[in-house]
Specification:
Helices cover 35% and strands 21% of the residues. With 111 residues, the chain is of the alpha/beta class. Helix 1 links the parallel strand 1 and strand 2. Helix 1 packs parallel to helix 2. Strands 3-2-1-4 form a 4-stranded parallel β-sheet, sandwiched between helices.
């Protein structure tokens, strides 16, 4: 099973943590994913960090909201754009183990 997984990250002023979050996604052993980052009108340097880390990477999409709407709106926007059979969320201050996606896909296989 190598179904596409959509990863949704709501981001708001996460310049201190977003780099680690994105790097933990890039290091995943399961590679069939798309990552949709919804920026909720950040006023810090997180947008520049996201752009630096994801430029020329087709797996990553950054959507910038013009108005702060909160985490729920950001997640719902990400859901509306997701193309994967499976969807998962990660907050902009979380880090995944390199096998997080693989282990979760393996669990689906065994059901």
């Amino acid at each position: 099973m190598n179904q596409l997984v959509s990863i949704i990250i709501p981001n708001y002023n996460s310049e201190k943590t977003i780099k680690s979050t994105i790097l933990s996604i890039k290091l995943q052993t399961f590679k069939n994913y798309e990552c949709i980052i919804i920026d909720d009108n950040s006023t810090d340097n997180s947008i520049n960090q996201i752009n630096d880390l994801t430029k020329n990477e087709q797996k990553f999409t950054l959507i910038q909201s013009k108005k702060n709407g909160g985490v729920t709106k950001a997640r719902n926007l990400g859901l509306s754009l997701a193309k994967g059979k499976y969807i998962t969320f990660i907050d902009s201050d979380d880090i995944w183990d390199k096998d997080f996606l693989k282990n979760n896909i393996d669990l689906r296989k065994n059901k």
